[in-house]
């Protein structure tokens, strides 16, 4: 690889929508916590990468034995995703053209093939790239009462997934400007878009599930089992 690859995994969230006794990244999928599955999947694709794991300073569940990477470091996460990513960027000695990939810790089912495809687009597209999925369902916009107020055309609409990847300098500049302008960004691509740049949408598999709600655990277990059978 021409430029080093840095993997940032924000994992400081509390996952309150899961209504569990501990953050969702520590809930079990089979015999392993979600975090371990996610890190192992990233390592399978990029064993030589540098991992930066963002954790709550008071985290009491993390086990360093789950990390398969030789090169890795822990940094304190922030109250919001953007804070964690910015603290990770500030902690690494990256060069401006180094590649940085940010991945949700709660996406343990991302495929190794999709990870490799994303990297190839990151290397060639100056505005970076993200895994995404074309919208397949009819999209409704609710009115103030919660009723279906309008049907939105789905042409050109995509679900943003992760990982999302950019050059180090571009991502730092985008997040710095977003903070300066008090923009609320829920993913890194939206910060880059605010600079007037257009990241590449890379069509990814539909089984790249983000575990968010309690019933997602059973679905993630089924997906991992099916991927294992088909590997």
From TrEMBL:
It catalyses: 2-C-methyl-D-erythritol 4-phosphate + CTP + H(+) = 4-CDP-2-C-methyl-D-erythritol + diphosphate. The record marks 17, 24 as: Transition state stabilizer. GO terms for biological process: isopentenyl diphosphate biosynthetic process, methylerythritol 4-phosphate pathway. The record marks 154, 210 as: Positions MEP for the nucleophilic attack. GO terms for molecular function: 2-C-methyl-D-erythritol 4-phosphate cytidylyltransferase activity. It comes from the Bacteria. The keyword Transferase applies. Keywords: Isoprene biosynthesis, Nucleotidyltransferase, Transferase. Pathway: Isoprenoid biosynthesis; isopentenyl diphosphate biosynthesis via DXP pathway; isopentenyl diphosphate from 1-deoxy-D-xylulose 5-phosphate: step 2/6. The keyword DNA repair does not apply. Pfam families: IspD. Its EC number is 2.7.7.60. Belongs to the IspD/TarI cytidylyltransferase family. IspD subfamily. Catalyzes the formation of 4-diphosphocytidyl-2-C-methyl-D-erythritol from CTP and 2-C-methyl-D-erythritol 4-phosphate (MEP). HAMAP family: IspD (MF_00108). This is 2-C-methyl-D-erythritol 4-phosphate cytidylyltransferase. It comes from Vreelandella zhuhanensis. The lineage of its organism: Bacteria, Pseudomonadati, Pseudomonadota, Gammaproteobacteria, Oceanospirillales. The gene is ispD.
């Amino acid at each position: 690889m021409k430029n080093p690859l840095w993997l940032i995994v924000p994992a400081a969230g509390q996952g309150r929508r899961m209504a569990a006794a501990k953050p969702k990244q520590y809930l079990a999928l089979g015999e392993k916590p979600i975090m371990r599955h996610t890190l192992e999947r990233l390592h399978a694709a990029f064993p030589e990468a540098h991992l930066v794991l963002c954790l709550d300073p008071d985290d009491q569940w993390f086990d360093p034995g789950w990390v398969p990477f030789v090169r890795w470091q822990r940094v304190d996460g922030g109250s919001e995703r953007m804070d964690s990513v910015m603290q990770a960027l500030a902690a690494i000695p990256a060069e401006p053209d180094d590649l940085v990939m940010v991945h949700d810790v709660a996406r343990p089912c991302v495929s190794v093939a999709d990870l490799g495809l994303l990297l190839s687009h990151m290397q060639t597209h100056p505005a970076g790239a993200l895994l995404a999925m074309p919208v397949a369902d009819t999209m409704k916009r609710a009115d103030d009462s919660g009723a279906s107020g309008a049907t939105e055309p789905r042409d050109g609409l995509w679900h943003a997934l992760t990982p999302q990847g950019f050059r180090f300098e571009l991502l730092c500049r985008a997040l710095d400007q977003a903070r300066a302008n008090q923009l609320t960004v829920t993913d890194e691509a939206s910060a880059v878009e605010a600079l007037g740049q257009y990241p590449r949408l890379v069509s990814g598999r539909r089984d790249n599930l983000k575990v968010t709600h309690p019933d997602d655990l059973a679905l993630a277990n089924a997906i991992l089992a099916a991927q294992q059978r088909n590997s």
